[in-house]
Amino acid sequence: MVDDTDLIAGARAGDRLAARRLYDRHAPRVYRLIFRMVSEDSLAQEYTQDTFVKAFDRLEQYRGESAFSTWLHSVAVSSVLTGFRRRKRLRFRETELEEASHVATRSDGSDLGREYATGHDVELLRSGYAGLSSATAKQAILSVLAEEGGASNLRWLLGVAGDAAASPELRAQAIEAGQRAGASAAQLGTLYAQAPDRRAKEAAINGLLKRGDRPSVDLLLGIARTETDPTVRRSLISRLGRLEDARVKEFLKELVGQ
Fold it and tell me: pTM here?
């Protein structure tokens, strides 16, 4: 089976067969995700087609930092938002997947361009999040809100990140999304301090490392000194060793001296 990476490279180079194989591989899951959100077969097919038109148009933007399917699901949620805006309606009602008997077929639509959600659309998206039982749909929404950014989205993402009722995976993804939406070092430090599990701690640490500014490094050094989970601490110390920072180098010398 040809890997997604090879198919993506081929599609970027203009190989229509590679693009078709990517579509055939991922279209069923994209369709199911969208159907859960819109509960209507014809709309799900339309938005699936929109998703792939946008995805192939923006394929150069996929950097491989996450699975292609995760990136594609974010494009799908964006396409649904655009469609909702066109129709001036939003329905976040999940329906049994057994009702979705059709899988969308690709059309050669024209370039739809990059479209963004309005503030009202995003508020509706946030309000519908809790009613979704699909983790895939929730992950895609977290990613879209991270890309949208803004103070209100950041506050909402931080709320999800601190929700004790959320799954460890969704909490961690919300922390990562919060970092992308502009969470400060102090906010990420608070999420680390409140983290109920290793996955959340690692996500907060990763966010601080990505920021890389002085307040973030100060917090990371404090974590490296006090973290009681040996796995988390070893991983952090290893990653700190890659930073060109005098304070980090001094800290590492202290460790060697111990």
Answer: 0.65
